[in-house]
Amino acid sequence: MFKRFVRCAQNVGSDYSPPLKDEVSGKLLNATYESYFEEEMSKVLEDLDEFGITIYGDGATIKTTPYINVLACSPGEFILFVSSAHLHCHLLLVMFAI
């Protein structure tokens, strides 16, 4: 992988400058995620009628803020990250009251 990277880097002109962090984390990252998500979601839903899907999650607390990750899987796609959410204290109280 590294050798391939070096070969590609040798073909880049001297006037090339890599994208800045704001450019990568903005539109470029969003467009990449959206196309990836749509493609992988179609794999998850491929055999929905025959096998169904499994939705599962995990959680973590980062700097006193609880987060929940929602994932899905099916025979066509083993893992798909669906969503992440941080939970506020009032939401936790409502969840435990139900």
Task: Describe what you observe in this structure.
The protein has 98 residues and is of the alpha+beta class. It has one domain (21-97). The protein is built from four helices and three strands, in the order αααβββα. The protein has helices spanning 2-10, 21-45, 48-51, 89-97, and strands at 54-62, 65-73, 80-86. The protein has a three-stranded antiparallel beta sheet. A hairpin with a 2-residue loop joins strand 1 and strand 2. It starts with a helix and ends with a helix.
Oligomer: single chain
Number of helices: 4
Q: Quick one: biggest sheet?
A: 3 strands, antiparallel
Q: In angstroms, what is the radius of gyration?
A: 20 Å
- Pairing-aware structural class of the strands and helices? alpha+beta
| H and E order | HHHEEEH
Global shape = extended
Mean pLDDT: 76
Q: What share of the residues does DSSP label as strand, in percent? A: 25-35%
Contiguous runs where pLDDT drops below 50 for at least 5 residues: 92-98
Report the span from N to C terminus: 51 Å
User: Strand order, biggest sheet?
Assistant: 1-2-3
Number of domains: 1
Helix share, percent: 40-55%
Find the count of extended strands (DSSP E, 2+ residues): 3
Short description:
With 98 residues, this protein is α+β, with helices and mostly antiparallel strands.
Main attributes of the structure:
98 residues, extended, three-stranded antiparallel beta sheet, disordered C terminus, alpha+beta, single chain, 3 strands
